Amino acid sequence: MSREQRLSEIIADHQGREGPLLPILHDVQEEFGCVDEEAERAIALALNLSRADVHGVVSFYHDFHTKADSRPVVQICRAESCKARGVEALMEGAAKAAGERVKLADVYCLGLCSSGPNARVGDKLHARLDGAALNKLIENA
């Protein structure tokens, strides 16, 4: 099945839903590793939206990317609560541990504000991180 056919299939799977844009974007991101310009155009056309409307949503949410990146991703919370708990002091070591092999992504709130600093790899949350724990998490990603 071609990419265009699969994209059409994803869109069709959600077309009858109320508010189909986000579910479509999530499925496209999961299937292709990104929501590129071609996908934005196809989604906009199918949902009778402007490409700017679709791109605005893609660029707003940190889960969507316009280019595929095969590296593992470690999301690190940089919100105020984690900052107050020392996440900034961990970032230099995290960057060194990641190198070019692991992508570090800043996110703003993972919902564990009382137990930061926090990170997420895939669907798994990690709380109360210190430098050693964060570096180990990155090395194992």
Description:
It is a single chain. The protein is α+β, with helices and mostly antiparallel strands and 141 residues long. 51% of the residues lie in helices and 11% in strands. A four-stranded mixed β-sheet has the order 2-1-3-4, covered by helices on one side. Strand 3 (119-121) and strand 4 (124-126) form a beta hairpin. Helix 3 packs across helix 4 (51-60) and helix 6 packs parallel to helix 7. It is elongated, with a radius of gyration of 18 Å.
Q: What does this entry show, briefly?
A:
The chain has 141 residues and is of the alpha+beta class.
Query: Secondary-structure element sequence?
Result: HHHHEHHEEEH
Decide which structural class fits the backbone. alpha+beta
Query: What integer value in Å does the Rg equal?
Result: 18 Å
**Major sheet characteristics:** 4 strands, mixed
Number-wise, the strands total 4
Q: Kindly state the mean pLDDT as a whole number?
A: 95
Spatially, the strands of the biggest sheet line up as 2-1-3-4
Distance between the ends: 31 Å
Shape: elongated
Which residue ranges are poorly predicted, with pLDDT under 50 across at least 5 consecutive positions?
A: none
> What proportion strand?
5-15%
Helix tally equals 7
